[in-house]
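Quick log. Single chain, no ligands specified.
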Amino acid sequence: MFDATENDPISPAMRALLEVFSTELSEVKFPDVDTEVLEEAAGRVRAQAEAVARAQAALEAARLALADSQDALLQKGQRALAYARVFAEEDIDLSMKVEAITLPKRGVRSESSAVEASQNDETAPRRRGRPPKSRPSAPLFADGSAPEAAATAPEPATAPVRPAPPVPVRSEAA
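-> predicted structure:
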């Protein structure tokens, strides 16, 4: 009798109560509450939920139409700005005013669609530039020269060091 789908605005507990009142307690009437009153109230809840769903769909359609209109305006504005820059080349005051205007490169979409687009690998733009150098996957102290090992390890053999040549000393008496 009642829709037990996920989109039902009536909670499972309330649906269970309505089921009890429609079966075992269908003949029982409490003051101001019986099967008919509960079913009528549940019908109003479902009707209001449908109205909310229609309003949300209309709101989403209006948002998309607004975004399309904003994109169209931005494209026309970018073109108008380009024409104005060329026209204002000889007028310094007008040129300064036009150069002070900066429009975004493309239309700004909602944050949720930007996040979805960045998470989708198929639609994500390819990275530009040179790929990063491949780094060795070995740990930093892979050769056993960890700081602790360096403190306790014996000194490595080094090449003999030649002494510096003697420096002649000048005497002041000469």
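DSSP finds five helices and no strands in the chain.
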